[in-house]
Specification:
This protein has 63 residues and is of the alpha+beta class. Helices cover 37% and strands 22% of the residues. It has one domain (2-57). β1 and β2 (45-51) form a beta hairpin. The radius of gyration is 25 Å and the shape is rod-shaped. 0% of the residues are buried.
Length: 63
């Protein structure tokens, strides 16, 4: 009985570690999260551009 519990424990531990490694290797597609436009409180719409890993506005704020 004690051997069966230990075997079940190790099997569940192995499955947990296996699932942890397989799920952590997936790469997110961050391109869907990057906005192509930004709107200010007045309703002005500004286009954006990606430079390296940063998102920048293509034009200055209209004031």
């Amino acid at each position: 009985m004690k051997n069966k519990c230990a075997s079940l424990y190790y099997l569940l531990l192995f499955i947990g570690i296996f699932l942890m490694f397989t799920n952590s290797c997936k790469k997110k597609d961050d391109t869907e999260l990057i906005p192509t436009t930004v709107t200010d409180i007045d309703g002005n719409v500004y286009n954006t551009i990606i430079i390296g890993t940063q998102v920048w506005m293509k034009e200055n704020l209209i004031t």
